[in-house]
Amino acid sequence: MLALHIDGLVKRYGDFTAVDGISFDVPEGEFFGLLGPNGAGKTTTINSIVGLSKITAGSIKLFGLDVTTDWRAARRLVGLSPQEYNFDRYLSIRDILIYQAGYYGLHGKAVRARADDLLERFGLTSKAKQIYTRLSGGMKRRLTIARALMFEPKLLILDEPTAGVDVELRLELWSFLRELNREGTTIILTTHYLEEAEELCSRIGIIEAGKLVALEATRKLIGERTLQDVFLELTRR
Ligand code: ATP
Description:
alpha/beta
């Protein structure tokens, strides 16, 4: 079963083409990485997958469901941890999680228990009653991931999950994401950190100027792209 099937995705903003005919598949259970420089089209691709951006041409399927025609069912399967914080600043951390489940029609004791469980798992229990502006940067990052997991998505998409996060927390997040993937969640991650993709992802796609320019097994891709000749010119002073 494919978790994600993208066929000829095009996204234009007016006359500007942000995504220019991208196609790739992600099988269920994979940990997949999307790399590329600033402005390459990674977030636009992700926004098209989760329904935040209306696609111009092409098609996207999540677990066989078309995100345009079967959007309601498709969206229940995918959780997004976005690059930018978009929390309600008047809600407590715990309520942010509980409200998120509410958007998916889930409520009651089980939802409250899940929120408490995720707060514990992400080390946020002591902050449960605070508003998000009182959290540190790393805590906010953890909260975006916890929120994306509230309705137990089969596919988790993380848009630069460790941007601005210290080394210790990054290692902690990596180990958590690995565990989540082992438990069966398919994960797609965008990052600027090559070592992060190398550490976590079994395959990597590289996007440049809206096109997919490489898609390989991580080991092969890193082997090919990091071997460089270094020339040193030695002069006597
Ligand atoms: P980064 O690594 O910096 O997050 P990215 O690969 O995620 O970059 P996108 O955010 O997808 O890049 O942007 C791709 C291109 O589309 C950029 O040139 C950006 O300015 C443009 N773009 C994105 N959103 C819009 C929008 N709503 N309207 C017009 N142009 C947009």
